[in-house]
Input
Amino acid sequence: MESTRNKLIELLAANQDYYISGQVLSEKLNISRNAIWKHMKELKKDGYIVEAKSKKGYQITGFPDKISENTIQWGLNTKWAGKTIIHKETTPSTQIVAHQAANEGAEHGTIIIADEQTKGKGRMEREWHSAKNKGIWLSLILRPAILPYLAPQLTLLTATVLADVIYKHTKTAPLIKWPNDIMLNHKKTTGILTEMQAEQDQIQYIVIGIGMNVNQQTNELPEDLQAIATSLHIETNKSWSIQTLIQDILQTFEDSYDAFIETGFSEVKRKWEHYGFKMGEYISIKTLREKWGGIFSGIAEDGALIIKTSDGKTKKLYSGEIEWFGEGENDVKQIRSETNERKQ
Ligand code: BT5
Output
């Protein structure tokens, strides 16, 4: 159910350049003029500048430079993504809030956003540094009707969405490092953490956590991350509107997700492979038992990485340490020439 506040914001955003009368708002929203006045007071608290003129009505002339439920909703045209927003100024982790909300029945598309996380989570209990007002710290609740083993596809989909949005706004060249890092100039700007609550053959919900470094300068990143992490600001020398980026992520995510549910994984796969870091190149892999390598030639339906080895076999990789920056040119030549021979 869309809230009255959302509808009011939609109306105000659609009529931004005009005064809109209390009468019209009250009729469209089916609430009293007094109730409208109370909503306006809430918007003012958020930092909106509300002009109110007798006979003319209301107009918003100034917009806050901070994120809140209202500012994210302002001008957002999605059908389901971000229709419910939980905003926290500070929280240990938006993932934790999301799990609670999902367990209490939060609807598909609900997002949790924070200005700051004090215990941001990476995968396998690693930490995610989430400085106040410097990035996007967001969790998205999904309730997809797909089989649990296909859930990794949603991580891959999310990565393509984030790469698309970064490229669209900054015109930098993002690459996706399997499975979940978005890189700019070989440094991580964005990470994704997918967590799932499921039974054997049914997903109850998925929480997709997105952490994107946006406006940090290098010295605002922890020292141990400065060599491996970057932000949109560091790469472009410009500040970016976190509100606009979140809105675009929600819109792009919704379009991509709906298309994925309708038509399947192939478009996600195509896009992912377009952005894939080291696609077509040699990578070496260390697992507990062995060390091996081959040409990274794509991603599979189940999210695995597909590798062609020098003995002509195709192998799938689900986990394991990849030496992304290792050597291996000789093997590449050997595999390429063998592949060509087989084609002829
Ligand atoms: C990830 O883990 O990349 C997933 C990050 C997900 C963060 C979001 S923010 C919203 C939501 N709420 C949460 O609590 N989490 C999600 P992983 O691949 O395990 O990478 C973690 C590693 O990245 C760390 O061990 C550091 O080396 C590095 N790292 C930590 N903070 C970083 C940052 N801000 N930017 C770049 N790298 C970082």
Observations:
- Confidence is low (pLDDT under 50) at residues 339-344.
